[in-house]
């Protein structure tokens, strides 16, 4: 921070406190050059998370969009609050993986959770996503699920 009085570049923070419900920080600083005090107001910018499509186009992660996508796929018996919770959980996970994530990764993160939660919702989500882009990963996922849900031993001639 540059001192507004002498434009010195050295300062120390003498007090920090959250402002605007915690989305900003107000700092009281003391200039180490002229000794005067001033206040800075720093907004906590949300860390950017970009979703990179197959085409190479990156767009900011949109949790509301993801939530809506999950909600559409969920079986009616599952409440909408589950979609919100999953979207939040997935966002947190993706943020630990880097600033840019491939769009398939987002879809797979949803599928990983839906597979555990509800197979019907899982397949619906997989089929919806397949409609958007040619995602062979999803097809593979669906195949895996179909294999694991089919009876292990089939009587010849019955199916
Ligand atoms: Zn100064």
Note the main attributes of this structure:
159 residues, alpha+beta, three-stranded antiparallel beta sheet, three-stranded mixed beta sheet, elongated, binds zinc ion
How would you portray this structure in words?
- The protein contains 5 helices and 6 strands.
- The chain is α+β, with helices and mostly antiparallel strands and 159 residues long.
- The protein has a 3-stranded antiparallel beta sheet with strand order 1-2-3, with no helix packed on it. A 3-stranded mixed beta sheet has the order 5-4-6.
- It is elongated.
- The relative contact order is 0.10.
- The model has no long low-confidence stretch (mean pLDDT 81).
- The chain binds zinc ion.
- Zinc ion (ZN) is lined by residues 3, 5-6, 8, 31, 33-34, 36.
